[in-house]
Write a structure and sequence with these properties.
Blueprint: H1 3-12, H2 23-32, H3 34-48, H4 53-64, H5 70-81, H6 88-111, E1 116-117, E2 120-121, H7 123-127, H8 129-147, H9 153-176, H10 184-209, H11 214-241, H12 244-247, H13 253-256, H14 262-273, H15 277-288, H16 296-306, H17 309-327, H18 335-351
Antiparallel strand pairs: 1-2
Helix pairs in contact: 2-18, 3-4, 3-6, 4-8, 5-6, 5-10, 6-8, 6-10, 9-10, 10-11, 11-17, 11-18, 14-16, 14-17, 17-18
Length: 352
């Protein structure tokens, strides 16, 4: 680990910085990787280049929308925790993961008829559906071709396999939209495939590039999975109870699109257990039949409160977070490990 990073980690682990609900630790984790994030952004610009100007404009538009580059940062964290260094190959992997993630956003906006993302008009809204889909495809293909330069067959197997899972997750969600699954396991599976696999790819892939022992690489991969599950559960909950000014979008998107997420499922499950015929009829009308009135979203939020769905989501997120942190026991204590643990707990702090 470089002397500069070591110094940063030491300051992060001081008692003053560890007080409170860990809200600052996540920000510090991003701040200390700022120079490397700049390299990732430069790589993203390179991967966006195309012989078609419109393609570059679309990719540039969505990359310029920002985002903290969570997945690239976790990729670099995985490398350092496994004893490696931030090499060009690590930057390439980090950028590839961000390209795949960005491609899923382009595709999601087409599927969901999205108009705004991160406070900006979506590419599909500006350029149309067809260019957005094709640019997403291009980003995946171009970034994977660059990943071949790492000359690491095991890494290519990992990234292509997990990328396939992300697409399978999107397909599975499409087939359950407008339906209420029989158990939470089906919903968790979609989250695991669509979202958690990207976090798994980041931490686990970074460790693999560092030449980590199999048990370390596996532990970091699984840690990434549980971090991803917790983060997505938070996003799904915020879509019901979040502040529009903070979200930079109106809540209720999943409800309006008849997507059954865990908050809604827990409310429905509570109504089943209590034989609440009014609530059950409400959920079947709005989520299965798609018959929604203007005030139905407020009623949905009320049912979440009535049946403690919000508290159940909190408990489930804590379970995922605890599992993620427990997996880090395979690693010796370090400032970077402490920073990752605090970052992982940050999601729970935002839920309060």
């Amino acid at each position: 680990m470089s002397r500069a990073l070591s110094s940063t980690f030491s300051s992060l682990s001081s008692p003053d910085n560890l007080e409170g609900p860990h809200q600052e630790m996540g920000l510090n984790l991003f701040e200390m990787f700022s120079p490397s994030i700049d390299k990732v952004n430069a790589k993203l610009t390179q991967l966006s280049k195309s012989s078609v100007n419109e393609s570059e404009n679309i990719a540039g538009h969505i990359f310029a929308a920002g985002g903290k580059r969570t997945r690239p940062v976790l990729c670099m964290v995985g490398t350092l925790l496994a004893g490696g260094e931030i090499t060009d190959d690590v930057i390439t992997l980090a950028a590839t993961i961000e390209c795949i993630h960005t491609a899923t956003l382009l595709h999601d906006d087409v599927i969901d008829n999205g108009q705004v993302r991160r406070g900006r008009k979506t590419p599909r809204y500006i350029w149309g559906n067809r260019p957005s889909i094709l640019v997403g495809d291009y980003l995946i293909a171009h970034s994977l071709s660059h990943l071949l330069n790492t000359d690491n067959l095991n890494l290519m197997k990992l990234v292509t396999s997990l990328s396939k899972d992300v697409i399978v997750g999107e397909l599975e969600q499409q087939y359950v939209t407008g339906a209420i699954p029989e158990s939470e396991a089906g919903i968790v599976r979609v989250i695991e495939l669509k979202t958690a696999r990207m976090f798994e790819m980041a931490l686990g892939g970074g460790a693999l590039l560092a030449g980590a022992a199999p048990e370390v690489q596996k532990a970091l991969s699984q840690c990434g999975k549980y971090i991803g599950l917790s983060f997505q559960l938070l996003d799904d909950l915020l879509d019901y109870i979040g502040d529009p000014k903070i979200l930079e979008k109106k809540p209720g998107k999943d409800f309006q699109e008849q997507v059954c997420t865990l908050p809604m499922f827990y409310a429905y499950e509570g109504a089943l257990k209590n034989n609440d015929k009014n609530a059950l009829a409400f959920w079947r009308r709005t989520m299965i039949m798609g018959d929604q009135a203007s005030d139905d979203f407020k009623k949905a939020v009320q049912y979440l409160n009535d049946y403690q769905a919000i508290e159940t989501c909190h408990a489930k997120a804590r379970e995922f977070t605890d599992l993620a942190i427990k997996l880090l026991d395979v690693l010796p204590d370090s400032d970077l490990k402490a920073a990752l643990i605090s970052f992982t707990r940050q999601a729970l702090a935002r839920m309060r």
